[in-house]
Amino acid sequence: MSTRAKITVSLTPVGRYYAFLVVGIFLAAMVRQVNLLLLLAGLIAAPLFLSWRMAGRNIRHLSVRRRVPAQICAGDLLVVDLQLAVSPPRGKVWMVSVLDSVQRDSSDPNADTKSVRVFFPYVDGTCPQTLAYRGRIGRRGCYTLGPLVLTTRFPLGLFEARRQVDLYDRISVCPRLGRLTENWRRRQHFTFEGGSRAERCADRVSGDFYGLRSWQAGDSPRLVHWRSSARHGELLVRQFDRPREQHLTVLLNLCCRANQPESQDVFKSEEDVEKAISFVATVIHDLCRKGGGSLLLGVSAEDVVWLGGPASPGFLERAMDVLTRAEPSEEDRLVTLFAEARQKSPQHADFLLVTTSPLQFRPGLSGDRRGQSVQRDALAARSGQASTLSRDFRLEVIDVTSGNLDNIFEYQTVARS
């Protein structure tokens, strides 16, 4: 329930013209000493005084509440309910507008603020009245709603009474979710075929047969299907859908290219960042919906943030909160991110690396064997193939700047209402 606040009453544009008319008649009556003009000025000033008194009293005993969801996804329909109630002694209130503000939490003092006005034509004292406004927020982040401003020009529109209610609510706009295409489903079967040597030794051919694929470095010769290989003229290995406790480490490297010129590339870089975050959010949402595994999320933004746990709704909620607040950094921490991931992940973990910085050899990595290994295998996987870094795990690299994300991920069409 809102608390009382100071009420400000001011003349409207129509009220100023009306007051100017009253003052003009009064001055003319005083100069010419005409009693009828004085009486006319008093009669005309009566509605002005009545409007001033009733405008303030009309919103003095009002209380307002706001109901807003704590979390939505970017692009989803946002519905905000405003409930207006009047104290029983006041009875009824007419023609009240409620002005609400929506602002994104940002360090930029010039951040844009959107205002929404909801008009209540009549509020009965016997029961509160609820109206709603709807909209869509296309940019992820944390937003603050408030304060609320109650305004009325009842009864004659000559005065406007304003009352600010310091009622604030926060809403988290999570990354926009999309759809993983069938190409992504096919590419992910390498994680079930037995990516590590230890798993292949433990269970080489268990599970249901899925299909054949081209031989890759590190595959066991026992999985080669010789008849199909002779028929197609290349080595083909069998893939099996094996129910196993999968551990996936998802790495998100957010890096904005600060040295690029002020042009359309700036917008393209921001678009790549948002698409990378949406893709990672969609992958985690899909895995948490299925369950049956564990996840480790590492986000390299302004700071490196780590989040681990079983694939569950609780992990999804925490991961969405991390991705909502993630902002790109000018420093590329790809090597540091992967080195920390190697230490935090289990021995036979599968890795998914999503980066917004172009993968290329950097002079700073020349003296680091671990950095050379990471970068070499990342470059090998840039074409969309999984690369074998070692005998213990596999790495799938998605370079958003190369455009290969378009084949495995797409945004869902938002239905307008």
Q: Give the number of DSSP strands.
A: 21
Tally of alpha and pi helices = 9
Measured distance between first and last alpha carbons: 31 Å
User: Over the alpha carbons, how many angstroms does the gyration radius reach?
Assistant: 32 Å
Helix content: 25-40%
Strand content: 25-35%
Q: What's the overall geometry?
A: elongated
Report the structural category: alpha+beta
Structural overview:
α1 packs antiparallel against α2. β5 (92-104) and β6 (113-124) form a beta hairpin. The chain is built from nine helices and 21 strands. The chain has helices at residues 13-32, 35-58, 182-187, 197-202, 226-232, 264-290, 313-325, 334-344, 369-380; strands at residues 7-11, 62-67, 71-73, 77-86, 92-104, 113-124, 129-136, 141-145, 148-152, 159-165, 169-174, 178-180, 208-214, 236-241, 246-253, 293-300, 304-310, 350-355, 387-388, 394-399, 409-411. The longest helix has 27 residues, at 264-290. The protein is of the alpha+beta class and 417 residues long. 30% of the residues lie in helices and 33% in strands. Strands 1, 3, 5, 6, 8, 9, 10 and 11 form an eight-stranded mixed sheet that branches. Strands 17-16-15-18-20-19 form a six-stranded mixed sheet, with helices on both faces. Strands 2-4-7 form a three-stranded antiparallel sheet, with no helix packed on it. The model is unreliable at 191-206 and 361-391 (pLDDT under 50).
